[in-house]
Amino acid sequence: MREFVVIVVKKTKRSEVDVLEKTVEEYLVKEVKKIGGIAYKFVSPGNAGVPDRIVIIPGGRVHFIEMKRPKGSVTKKRQKMQQDRIKAKGANVRSAYTKEEVDAFIKEVST
Length: 111
What we know:
The protein is α+β, with helices and mostly antiparallel strands. It has a single domain, classed as Trna Endonuclease, Chain: A, domain 1 (3-Layer(aba) Sandwich). Helix content is about 40%, strand content about 20%. It contains three helices and four strands. The chain has helices at about 15-35, 75-90, 100-110; strands at about 40, 55, 60-65, 90-95. A four-stranded mixed beta sheet has the order 1-2-3-4, sandwiched between helices. Helix 2 links the parallel strand 3 (about 60-65) and strand 4. The longest helix is centred in the first third of the chain and has 21 residues, at about 15-35.
């Protein structure tokens, strides 16, 4: 008698990993708008690892925000280097992994 082993592989879409980060990023944009700010998507050709968003709060305060998915995400070496370069110029840089961290950021910059 022949035995067969059936292996079931669950396919996951590549975007499923990005969905959580995207959800938090969309939440940031929405919350920044609520307080009268702007959250530009930041892309800088030739400068890999720059933060995902430039947030401008009323009064001219500027923050660079690196978005991360809530679980299992790590800041890459290139991203850390870029964050350190921006901080060295006296700018505000932070990462946001969750909606709660976005809420804390909004509370901090709203006061």
